[in-house]
Amino acid sequence: MAINSGDTAWILISAALVMLMTPGVALFYGGMVRRKSVLSTMMMCFAALSIVGIIWVLYGYSLSFAPGNAFIGGLEWIGLRQVGQEPSTIYATTVPHLAFMIFQAMFAIITIALITGAVVERIKFSAFLVFSVLWLTVVYCPVAHWVWGDGGWLAELGALDFAGGTVVHIAAGVSALALAMLLGPRKGFLAKETMEPHNIPMVALGAGLLWFG
């Protein structure tokens, strides 16, 4: 397989655009919460960049995209073994395999970041980190393999999901709803305490970055 410089440049630019959306989510959610919660809210999104990045390199990418069965990928690419400068023979065959891997990592990161909007002011930061690792492992990786992975059962049925409508948005939305129901309302909700957004310009800036990304 020959590497195409234009395709490689475009997938790297695309990865940067998707990465930009995670700080966009941080600003969007950070502006919507009360002032006392803005730091923890934004840190959840930025923590997703780091912790999901580590898990993705260790085993997340392999479980999502390595050859496996209809429901989960294998461990052939664990620790990015066999994922290097040469193109993959399965995915994006005109760009370095590492470029495709990092592009997919950005979607895993923002999917975790999207869920934070349902749990702000309801969950400890440390608990969110544990949840992120578990959720990425048992929910995101299998669903990504179903839809985007070679041999995934939804892919075999002909499912097309170029923009992440299933892997990112349905998975994050349903999980966020379930987590919000489990945790219950924020303390002071529907009481005398006001819960107005503390910074509307931050919300608008975050929305603009998401739109751009």
Note down, in words, how this protein is organized.
- The chain has 213 residues and is an all-alpha fold.
- The protein has a domain at 48-195: Ammonium transporter AmtB like domains (Ammonium transporter fold, Orthogonal Bundle).
- The protein has helices spanning 5-32, 38-65, 97-115, 125-148, 153-156, 165-183, 200-212.
- The mean pLDDT is 92.
Describe how the helices and strands are arranged:
Blueprint: H1 5-32, H2 38-65, H3 97-115, H4 125-148, H5 153-156, H6 165-183, H7 200-212
Helix pairs in contact: 1-2, 1-3, 1-7, 2-3, 2-4, 3-6, 4-6
CATH first level of the domain at 48-195: Mainly Alpha
Oligomeric status of the shown chains? single chain
Largest sheet: none
Mean pLDDT across residues? 92
What's the tally of helices? Answer: 7
Per CATH, which architecture of the domain at 48-195? Answer: Orthogonal Bundle
Record field, number of beta strands: 0
Cα gyration radius (Å): 18 Å
The succession of helices and strands, N to C, reads: HHHHHHH
